[in-house]
Write a structure and sequence with these properties.
Elements: H1 2-10, E1 13-16, E2 35-38, H2 49-56, H3 61-67, H4 72-78, H5 81-90, H6 106-112, H7 118-122, E3 124-127, E4 140-146, E5 151-160, E6 166-168, E7 176-178, E8 183-187, E9 193-195, H8 199-203, E10 210-212, E11 220-226, E12 241-242, E13 253-254, E14 278-285, E15 288-289, E16 292-293, E17 298-306, E18 323-328, E19 334-342, H9 356-359, H10 379-382, E20 386-391, E21 403-407, E22 415-418, E23 428-430, E24 433-438, E25 442-448, E26 452-454
Antiparallel strand pairs: 1-2, 3-4, 3-17, 4-5, 5-8, 5-9, 6-7, 10-11, 11-14, 12-13, 14-17, 15-16, 18-19, 19-20, 20-21, 21-24, 22-23, 23-26, 24-25
Length: 459
């Protein structure tokens, strides 16, 4: 790309009228690009317009912007609006965007919400704190693009337990099984994130926080700031990081600050330095009279959000159990879990070890946790590997970002039996460990929850 720009900057160009035989660019929204005659023409300038258009479809938006400063010919090509429509659509996966309204063009729409398109592209975000500021519960937020107002919004994903019924377990009558019929939806009365068009242009600095129009109550303010990821060699065990180390993440950031993350070290120095896997929201209450704020921040708090790659929660044929699940935690209500199915070599059948061994985080570079054997065909091949359940939202006992249970091997080595009782007939029962702790995450210990039943439709 740099070589391409240098070639066109070194050429001497003169304008000429476009000949009648010059074909128009496909899907071009502007007049036919002018034809340029080069004193020392390069091979690229002699290509037909359709070929140049196809070449530009492989370039990212930053390269298209750079091309606009090389020559009038490439500027005309780089401003073709159909090239910019894919940048918008690629950043809102699973959501059809049919028109650029209310923006005048796809290019202006993309620029108006840049550099915040990563919010909708990553889709699912989880926080270190709840909406109320609790450090234990956390939030799960779903980002989406609103085509009516051309803005980016994020809403909390919430779940209600529904109506319970209780029944004794035939296999162990001392155990009471209660049904679980959750109602899951977005709480749309109060958006957590709302990015309007042109918000970055008002500040034109990645270090500044962006004011958001959120809050159902008057006087509640919130601002969004980009983060600077902490390089792995600068991380230490003494640091409090988000996301927690047991959650697979491309980047982590500091999660403690005496000055509420106002220092420059917590923010990127440039757009290329900004993290696309974390961001922060500062929230406070500001009182005033007659609609005029007093400028005093009361109850100010900062929440850090992170995301996880969709490869860890998208089910596949080899890993059908992984995904984002909702669990019923009785008095604590519904909690969202990240289930990761890792490929492992099945160890010999043996009793599970202590709590620290199975529930500690395992490095994927360890050969033991590397997929070295092909997955066999049939149902037995689909039930293999280590299954980890990590809380994305938590409770005062076991908080977000911690294991809630782990099945070391759901394959033949961990299989206890195939259930034949009426309630779970045909389900696989495997060895597993649960995580229990007192309030404030004290006195953590493991519980041997051997009858862990694997069923896609009842978990």
């Amino acid at each position: 790309m740099d070589a391409l720009i240098r070639i066109f900057r070194s050429r001497k160009m003169v304008m000429s009228d476009p000949p009648d035989r010059s074909p128009a660019l496909p899907h071009m929204d502007s007049p036919v690009a002018p034809t340029l005659v080069y004193a020392n023409p390069s091979s690229l300038s002699l290509l037909p317009a359709e070929i140049i258009y196809q070449i530009l479809t492989f370039l990212p938006p930053q390269s298209l912007v750079a091309l606009t400063s090389t020559s009038k010919l490439l500027r005309a090509h780089a401003l073709v609006d159909s090239l910019w429509s894919r940048f918008v659509r690629d950043n809102v996966p699973g959501q059809p965007v049919l028109e650029c309204y209310p923006a005048e063009s796809w290019r202006k729409l993309y620029i108006s919400l840049y550099p915040y398109w990563f919010l909708t592209r990553k889709k699912i975000w989880f926080s270190d704190k709840a909406h109320t500021g609790s450090n234990w519960v956390g939030n799960l937020v779903v980002m989406r693009y609103d085509p009516r107002r051309a803005c980016i919004e994020g809403f909390r994903l919430v779940a209600k337990q529904g109506i319970h019924s209780f029944e004794a377990w035939d296999w162990n009558p001392e155990v009471i099984i209660h049904t679980f019929d959750p109602h899951i939806g977005l709480f749309m009365d109060d958006p957590v994130v709302k990015i309007d068009r042109g918000c970055y242009a008002q500040h034109n600095s990645v270090r500044e926080e962006v004011m958001m129009n959120t809050g159902v109550s008057r006087g509640v303010r919130s601002m969004l700031s980009l983060c600077h990821g902490l390089e792995p060699h600068r991380q230490s065990n003494a640091m409090t990081l988000w996301p927690s180390r047991i959650i697979p993440a491309k980047e982590r950031v500091r999660n403690e600050s005496r000055h509420l993350f106002r220092g420059e070290g917590h923010r990127p120095s440039s757009l290329s330095d900004a993290s696309e896997n974390t961001f922060r929201i500062r929230k406070w209450v500001e009182f005033g009279g007659l609609g005029i704020p007093l400028g005093v921040h009361i109850g100010e708090d900062v929440t850090t959000f992170s995301t996880v790659s969709d490869e860890y929660y998208t089910p596949t044929r080899e890993k059908p159990w992984q995904g984002i699940w909702v669990g019923d935690y009785s008095g604590h209500g519904c909690e969202f879990l990240l289930l990761i199915q890792r490929a492992v070599i099945s160890p010999p059948v043996a009793p599970l070890s202590s709590f620290e061994s199975p529930l500690q985080h395992h490095d994927e570079s360890d050969p033991k946790y590397r997929p070295t054997l092909p997955v066999p065909e049939g149902e037995d091949g689909l039930c293999a590997g280590r299954l980890e359940a990590i809380k994305l939202t938590g409770d005062p006992n076991v908080p977000r970002g911690e294991f809630t249970w782990v099945a070391e091997d759901i394959g033949p080595a961990g299989l206890l039996r195939v259930a034949n009782e009426r309630m779970f007939r045909g389900s696989r029962v495997v060895r597993s460990l649960g995580h229990s702790a007192a309030r404030q995450f004290r006195n953590g210990r493991s519980l041997d929850v051997a009858p862990k039943t694997l069923m896609a439709d009842r978990w």
